[in-house]
Amino acid sequence: MASNNKQVILRDYVAGFPKESDLVFNDATVDLSVLAGSNKVLVKNLFLSCDPYMRIRMSKPDPSTAALALPYKPGKPIYGYGVSKVIESGHPDYTKGDLLWGIVGWEEYSVITLTPYSHFKILHTDVPLSYYTGLLGMAGMTAYSGFYEICSPKKGETVFVSAASGAVGQLVGQLAKIMGCYVVGSAGSNEKVELLKNKFGFDEAFNYKEEQDLNAALKRCFPEGIDIYFENVGGKMLDAVLLNMKLNGRIAVCGMISQYNLEEQEGVRNLATVIYKRVRLQGFVVSDYYHKYSNFLEFVLPYIREGKITYVEDVAEGLENGPSALIGLFHGKNVGKQLIVVARE
Fold this sequence. Notes:
Blueprint: E1 2-10, E2 23-31, E3 40-49, E4 79-89, E5 99-105, E6 109-113, E7 119-121, H1 138-150, E8 158-161, H2 169-178, E9 182-187, H3 190-198, E10 204-207, H4 214-221, E11 226-231, H5 235-244, E12 245-253, H6 272-276, E13 280-283, H7 293-305, E14 313-317, H8 322-329, E15 337-341
Parallel strand pairs: 8-9, 8-11, 9-10, 11-12, 12-13, 14-15
Antiparallel strand pairs: 1-2, 3-4, 3-6, 3-15, 4-5, 5-7
Helix pairs in contact: 1-2, 4-5
């Protein structure tokens, strides 16, 4: 039996800032059955995640640079993290009605092949299912692994988070507060700054668009310097942070959204500070830590249930609003974790 399957496809490779017209709709069909023993699973997609790294996948492949992920193929559906419900399964570990999160197409139904850590069965449904696109999914694991595994935080340290109201940053700040750290975040609007201070409990926050001198802004917030910087932005923000790091400071490089839409990336200045102040600057990819996902859930779920960790989502209703939601991410239009509701059930 076949069914209609609306999809969002990439029209062509993108240079510069992407536009909504770069993503177009396609009406396809999908077979609502899979072969037993094939390890394939047919899922109905419920929620889709909008993430900054997806912009990298829209660009034409460049053999001279190392790619974090394979580029999308023009004329084919884009894909990313989502929450889905199993319709039919050829895999022994999944049955009809199971819920999972992992990589799926931007479409109503996806046929996925399960490999180790590509998808995770959802066992805890006493929290919002949409959280598995962010707080309890890839973004949450990114915050957890980057902060604890790379930054090695200690009580009383000073922590700075850029893009702090986004999917990753809002959790990093709350984890740092739980550790007993002094936490400052930057964001791109006064609304987001208030969110950081009043919703997520940051000690201080500033709107980077209103600061004439980022170095001065950081010195104002961190008169004695920064122990830990959780990097989501790059560019001028990283330049300023390097001047304000403490001796033996740590920088976890999670993302550099300021660079994703530039045809020629900006250089980084002030790198000599890494030597003088013995700063450890380390990039990481969340998939390297997926084997610790059960540890993450064991740690974070009690805090969520007790209301000690909160999460803000920016929800777009309907697959047809997916392109505008994703493109808006690169203009800072989202407030909190951007996601798309494809179907409620």
